[in-house]
Design goal:
Layout lengths: L2 H16 L6 H8 L3 H13 L3 E6 L8 E6 L11 H13 L3 H18 L12 H15 L3 E4 L10 E4 L5 H6 L1 H18 L4 E11 L2 E8 L4
Antiparallel strand pairs: 1-2, 3-4, 4-6, 5-6
């Protein structure tokens, strides 16, 4: 959609919101000074987007029922989002706390979310290092970390490292690494705990390589 179309569609929506009663196509077109077909096109799009409601009104006298439109209550969902700013606001609250407490809180939050984002193994299934690592890699890949295990898991000897070749929170990690990175480590620990895995994540090296971070794994008993 072009900038002009977007502006015109917003004008149609504003006209419906300002009207004291539902408007038809012709009425809306007269208010905006545009052709009815243009208004009809934008009204159909607004209905499809869930921003406008269309209904039929019966006229008090003879004649065909009239189709009218009203704006649905609620904010315009086509506006700008800035979730990075929200994340920075929340992280700054942690950053102002005692460093040790902030790190512990970030780790615990990560563990809670890691456990929430994976499903536990089926009943009576014995978790193995191979299955656990595969599930963890799938989660990290879904979250955008572009993970790669280094070394195939074998009984009693799981892979020692997972290379994270992308960070979905890169700018935040560069600004608040002492909080974001422990949160990532906690997320991996929480996921592995939820999976009842025989291994856990023991450490995370931020930017261990120029193009990646490295997570270290070890058997749960040894850890």
């Amino acid at each position: 959609m072009t900038t002009r179309e977007s502006s015109r569609r917003l004008a149609v929506l504003d006209a419906l919101r300002a009207a004291p009663s539902p408007l038809g196509v012709a009425e809306t077109a007269r208010r905006l000074g545009v052709h009815p077909n243009t208004v009809r096109f934008h009204l159909d799009s607004l209905v499809a987007e869930g921003l406008v409601e269309r209904r039929t009104e019966r006229s008090p006298g003879p004649g065909r029922p009239r189709t009218v439109y009203t704006a649905r209550p609620g904010m315009d969902r086509g506006g700008i989002r800035d979730y990075r700013l929200l994340a920075r606001v929340l992280l700054s609250r942690w950053a102002a706390a005692d460093p040790a407490e902030a790190r512990a809180e970030a780790m615990e939050t990560g563990r809670a979310w890691g456990g929430y984002l994976v499903d536990p193994p089926p009943p009576f299934e014995q978790p193995t290092a191979e299955r656990s690592v595969a599930a963890l890699l799938a989660l990290l890949d879904e979250l955008g970390f572009a993970p790669r295990a280094e070394g195939e898991p074998t009984p009693g000897a799981p892979p020692r490292r997972i290379r994270l070749r992308h960070c979905p929170f890169l700018e935040l990690a560069e600004e608040h690494g002492r909080l974001v990175c422990p949160l990532h480590l906690g997320l991996m620990q929480g996921a592995l705990a939820r999976l009842d895995a025989p291994l856990t994540a023991t450490g995370l090296e931020p930017f261990a390589e120029p193009d990646s971070c490295v997570a270290h794994l070890a058997g749960a008993t040894a850890a």
